[in-house]
Specification:
Elements lengths: L15 H7 L7 H19 L4 H18 L14 H22 L9 H14 L7 H8 L3 H10 L1 H4 L2 H8 L5 H14 L9 H12 L5 H4 L6 H15 L4 H28 L8 H28 L4 H25 L2
Amino acid sequence: MTQLEVDPTTVSAPAGLAGLVRSWGADPSADTLHELTRRADEIIPLAFEQGDDAAELEAQRFLYEVHAHRILPPWSPHWRDYEHPTIVDVHRRAGDAWLARDRRAYGADLEVPTTPKGFGEWATEVCEGHASGVTHPLFDFLAEKATFDQLASFLGQETPFDIHFGDLVALLLPGIHGGQKIELAHNFWDEMGNGAVERTHRRLRLDMMARVGIHGEAYLSDVDGYWVEELRMANMYFQTSSARSLAPQSIGMLQATELVVPGRLERQIEGWRRVGLADQEMVYLLEHVTVDVEHAEGWLNHVIAPLAAERPDMLLEVGIGIMRRLDCALAVCDRAMRELP
């Protein structure tokens, strides 16, 4: 059984803040509401001001629990009504405290070019040279040494972000028009398999997960199974795609994704072939090696370049998004090298 293979008849309740909201009934008592607020008042500063690792894990589990279930339609068996004002308030406070920490880390010293050409060159250079890229030792390990179960564990850990990618792109679409919207829509349509249900990227990923023994609903039913670094990655995209004021960061994160992912996936494909997986069983990975290269160029030319020309003052936020994403990915790679070998 791989790390994230779970019995589909069971659902594990996350501990801490996530466990509190998941255990609520339709009409939570005043004591329950008070306990959530009290716990949040304790955990949020520990997590995002004092650097307490256990507190951040609890906070990131809570952020993800709410993001991942709130986006579902009410006819989903996993949908949870997380719109209670107390949950919304605690979720906002946790996200704001995390964002403030990252702004302190990146906003003060980060300098980015303010012309379309200059920013595009900077973004490409930063992404291609970052330590989270294909040169990280993790990808040699996955390609050359990892067992079937180790490859499956890494694939499973990547689920919270990957499985939601189409929804995250869709969240950016409202209010954006012209060539920028066309590029976003092109990316989204690729996620939708160009109209073929069986070719949607979500379906392709679920098919691959089933083949290698990862339960397809673990990203909703077993939140405790994910590393804090992977929850941080998913929450970062949810946060910036959901809040319109953070849309420039989301654009930067998506640009970084398209620039760095293809080479990393090629090494994983090598590893899967080595342990006997056929190409038709990992179409999800093969598909992204091709389309992400196209999207990287499209994002630069049709989304970021027009933004740079019209609102160069927004480019610092785009740059912060790029750096947050890259450094988060590096933390994932480092954690994987500690956990998998």
